Amino acid sequence: MKIISFLHLSVLAPIAAWSLATSASRVPPPAAVIHVVATTPDLAALAREIGGDAVEVKALAKATEDPHFVDAKPSHIVTLNRADVLIEGGADLEIGWLPPLLESARNDRIATGAPGRIVASQGIRMLDVPSTLDRARGDVHALGNPHFLIDPINVRTIAATIAEHFALVNPKSADLFRANLKKFDATLDVHLATWLKQMAPFKGAKIVTYHKDFVYLAERFNLEVVETLEAKPGIAPSPAHLAQVISTMKAQNARVILVQPYQNRKTAETVARQTDATVLDMAQQPGAIDGTGTYFQLMDYIVTLLSTALQEKK
Ligand SMILES: [Zn+2]
Questions:
Q1: Rounded to the nearest whole angstrom, what is the distance from the C-alpha of residue 230 to the centroid of ligand 1?
Q2: How many angstroms separate the first and last alpha carbons of the chain?
Q3: Beta-sheet pairing, 85-88 with 117-119
Q4: Spacing, Cα 62 to ligand 1 middle (Å)
């Protein structure tokens, strides 16, 4: 960055002198921002909270896209090639699409082990770690469940990791990153207390999800996921499995089904009709639903929708 602007000044000296002269009376240009790429919008939202004005953040996956199966585009390679920092979820979440993009991007700043590479799963206590590994089953959670950002306590750990790496990549803004982290943690504490209070009456409530994507939420708020519409992560539901889901839901009085925008809502509706259940439009990505652009807005939405439905179906 600095080398480029120096060359610019020497080679294009007359133009540079002119622009310096004309901009002398204006506000000084902002300090160099670091270019951050996050694989998913939830990680991007955290990067924005911690980075503030000192970062420019892009997410590769759309908010309404399944993070396991993102549509890889040439523009993603360009974005990765220019990045100073890459934040990935890890735990194989992006294994189906990120490695070939990274290979084409050829960017040492975000290579494995570089300060510019952040793997969110490092430092997270993983749930659903399989005792035996068999990828032939199509199991997309081979290293444990990668949907851990839905637990605010995990987010606290990840935000701290992001702040550390940002400070290494851009030491001049280290104080800003530390201050933003402190502010983020304080806001998170306030919100978490509210969320726990909202969910407290529903301790032990039984829920059904489409994919195994809300296990961390269930653990944090003392809910029980009694079934998933998918028999195995990443495998479309079979009629035989759905029949079993319906019978479990009836036996255990589970009457709420959580579905994300990229999952098959019609399947969930069919099951709901036979079990007197409600289908809830959930999301784990900020921005997937209007008015949920930040992590806090998204979690507010999730907790409110879930607690309201559990109250109605109590
Ligand atoms: Zn998954």
A1: 11
A2: 58
A3: parallel
A4: 16
Q: How far is the CA of 229 from the centre of ligand 1 (A)?
A: 13
How far, in Å, is the centroid of ligand 1 from the Cα of 166? 28
Tell me the CA–centroid distance for residue 225 and ligand 1, in Å.
15
Residue showing tokens 């255990």:
252
Q: Are 255 and 233 in contact (CB under 8 A)?
A: no
Question: Which SS3 state, helix, strand or coil, does residue 94 take?
Answer: coil
- Tell me the residue type at 215: V
**How many CB atoms are located within 10 Å of the residue 273 CB?**
11
Q: Taking Cα atoms as reference points, which of 71, 73, 74, 77 lies closest to residue 107?
A: 77
Which pTM was predicted? Answer: 0.89
pLDDT in tens, 138-167: 667 889 999 999 999 999 999 999 999 999
279 Cα to the center of ligand 1, angstroms = 19
Residue 36: helix, strand or coil by DSSP? Answer: strand
